[in-house]
């Protein structure tokens, strides 16, 4: 009798668990960097931010603070950095941003969302449901 109750409880538990999401791998395009005199322009910045589901202002603020440079977003959503930055340096900083603020530390998925919960920023994975706090660097 006790074993039957346990099995019923176990089945009830499994029926209430969320169904496992099938993760479609997202392909993050490399940054398209263009040099205009003393400025560096990222032409596909808005598109890349849409792919990783992040606000372009947060991503740009992180990059600018990491480089110690000034910059802005133009009307087309391109990032304009008021300094010449090499493609490799810019892509390395962007990869670091992805590791810290986009990639799920539990399952490694890039399907996450970043939201503010009070004074803390929370990285929520849409694939496995894990949540992790992240320290803002912007």
What does this structure look like?
The protein is α+β, with helices and mostly antiparallel strands. The chain has one domain (24-134): Defensin A-like (2-Layer Sandwich), CATH 3.30.30.170. It is built from four helices and seven strands; from the N terminus they run H-E-E-H-H-E-E-H-E-E-E. The chain has helices spanning 2-16, 45-51, 56-67, 87-101; strands at 33-36, 39-42, 71-73, 79-81, 112-117, 120-125, 131-134. The chain is elongated. The mean pLDDT is 88.
Briefly, what is this?
By secondary structure, the protein is α+β, with helices and mostly antiparallel strands. Helix content is 36%, strand content 22%.
Q: Describe the biggest sheet?
A: 4 strands, antiparallel
Any idea what the CATH architecture is? 2-Layer Sandwich
Q: Tell me, rounded to a whole number, the average pLDDT.
A: 88
Find the count of extended strands (DSSP E, 2+ residues): 7
* Secondary-structure element series: HEEHHEEHEEE
| Tally of discrete structural domains | 1
What spatial order of strands do you see in the largest sheet?
1-2-4-3
Low-confidence stretches: none
Question: Secondary-structure map with pairings?
Answer:
Layout: H1 2-16, E1 33-36, E2 39-42, H2 45-51, H3 56-67, E3 71-73, E4 79-81, H4 87-101, E5 112-117, E6 120-125, E7 131-134
Antiparallel strand pairs: 1-2, 2-4, 3-4, 5-6, 6-7
Helix pairs in contact: 3-4
């Amino acid at each position: 009798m006790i074993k039957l109750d346990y099995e019923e409880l176990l089945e009830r538990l499994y029926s209430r668990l969320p169904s496992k999401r099938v993760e479609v791998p997202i392909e993050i395009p490399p940054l398209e960097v263009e040099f205009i005199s003393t400025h560096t322009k990222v032409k596909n910045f808005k598109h890349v931010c849409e792919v990783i589901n992040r606000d372009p202002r947060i991503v740009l603020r992180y990059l600018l603070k990491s480089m110690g440079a000034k910059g802005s977003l133009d009307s087309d959503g391109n990032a304009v950095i008021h300094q010449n930055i090499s493609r490799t340096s810019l892509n390395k900083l962007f990869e670091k941003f992805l590791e810290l603020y986009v990639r799920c530390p539990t399952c490694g998925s890039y399907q996450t969302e970043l939201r503010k919960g009070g004074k803390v920023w929370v990285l929520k994975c849409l694939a496995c449901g894990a949540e992790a706090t992240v320290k803002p660097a912007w």
